[in-house]
Amino acid sequence: MKKIFYFFLFLVLVGSYSQLQAQSCDILYFCVSYDGKEVDCSDRFYAGKLTVMARLAKEIYYTKVTVQLDKYNPREGKFEYYKEYPFDTESDMTYIYFPGVEFSDKGFYRVFLLDPNKNTITSALVEII
């Protein structure tokens, strides 16, 4: 019985550690809107406008960034450029929201947060149904 208890305790400790590690990197995610708090976060939405959220480990440094959408083309088996949205930011931001990003077609999208030189800061996938 003690072995089972210690095993579960070990799993909880390992799970807590991995959760702490996941929060120390740059994350991009999606919600329906942001009004001081995130509304309906998910990775699957109906077509329309979404808010792209970024939680960064360090300050962003840049004052102009781009949210770029690449849509998956199943016939070609690869992601292809779809749209991009420029945004202004403050250089000391670590928690940023980008409202009004239009996902008008159904499919899978790879979304990038890009610096002014088009280098990837962070990225994520979202499905539009």
Tell me, what's the shape?
globular
Please give the order of strands in the largest beta sheet: 3-9-8-5-6
- Can you write the helix and strand succession as a string? HEEEEEEEEE
What integer value in Å does the Rg equal?
Answer: 18 Å
Class by helix and strand content? alpha+beta
| Helical run tally | 1
Summed over residues and divided by their number, the pLDDT gives a mean of 87
Features:
alpha+beta; 5-stranded mixed beta sheet; 1 helix; 54% strand; globular
Question: Can you describe what's shown?
Answer:
This protein has 129 residues and is of the alpha+beta class. The chain has one helix at 2-22, and strands at 27-34, 38-42, 44-45, 48-55, 64-73, 78-88, 95-103, 107-114, 120-128. The chain starts with a helix and ends with a strand. Mean pLDDT is 87; it is low at 17-22.
In short:
The chain is of the alpha+beta class and 129 residues long. The protein contains one helix and nine strands; from the N terminus they run αβββββββββ.
Layout of strands and helices, then pairs:
Elements: H1 2-22, E1 27-34, E2 38-42, E3 44-45, E4 48-55, E5 64-73, E6 78-88, E7 95-103, E8 107-114, E9 120-128
Parallel strand pairs: 3-9
Antiparallel strand pairs: 1-2, 1-4, 4-7, 5-6, 5-8, 8-9
